[in-house]
Amino acid sequence: MAQEARNGSKAVEVVFEAVKPWLVVEAPKANDAVQFYKAAFGADEVNRVNHPKRKAEQELPLVLFAELKLGAISIVVSDLTNDSFDPVESAVTGSVFCLETEDVEAAVSKAVTAGAVADGEVSEVEGVCCGGRVGKIKDPYGNVWVICSPSKKSADVAA
């Protein structure tokens, strides 16, 4: 049976492939957090992107995201920054979750119809935890949801 949206129209069916808790730490401590999760819990690092605006030879690079496999789930760890390139830059309070789906636009629209607030437009973004299409919403309770196309695993993982 089709669900009805708040406005009375038929709700769009959206299938999510994964949900990833996103741990945001005070910059520049994400690399230390990744090393801790590896040592303490046996997490495996499967993907990492450092912030593109920081030069490694000049200053400690910030972690835009590091995806860790911990048991059967993946978690994402990143440094909190004030940069608009950063998908979690507005996540000072609450939690951040990454949802993967093939239909990012429909998922964002459905969340907004249910009461979330879109944070910018859905766009193609390189170097994020997900595939490439990314939208960000904030739920009524202060949590940030990054909705993106499915991950494309990177062969290059920084240690």
Would you give an account of this structure?
The protein has a single domain, classed as 2,3-Dihydroxybiphenyl 1,2-Dioxygenase, domain 1. The protein contains 2 helices and 9 strands. It has helices at residues 30-41, 104-113; strands spanning 18-26, 44-50, 63-70, 73-80, 96-100, 117-118, 123-124, 133-138, 144-148. Strands 1, 2, 3, 4, 5, 6, 7, 8 and 9 form a 9-stranded mixed β-sheet that branches. A hairpin with a 2-residue loop joins strand 3 (63-70) and strand 4. The longest helix has 12 residues, at 30-41.
Short description:
This protein is of the alpha+beta class and 159 residues long. It is 14% helix and 33% strand.
For the sheet with most strands, the description reads: 9 strands, mixed
The amount of helix comes to 10-25%
Distance between termini? 48 Å
- Arithmetic mean of pLDDT: 79
| Order of secondary-structure elements | EHEEEEHEEEE
CATH topology: 2,3-Dihydroxybiphenyl 1,2-Dioxygenase, domain 1
Q: Which second-level CATH architecture applies?
A: Roll
Give the count of helical stretches. Answer: 2
Tell me the name of the CATH class. Answer: Alpha Beta
Count of the separate structural domains: 1
Question: How would you name the CATH homologous superfamily?
Answer: 2,3-Dihydroxybiphenyl 1,2-Dioxygenase, domain 1
Low-pLDDT runs? 154-159
How much is the radius of gyration in Å?
16 Å
Structure summary, number of beta strands: 9
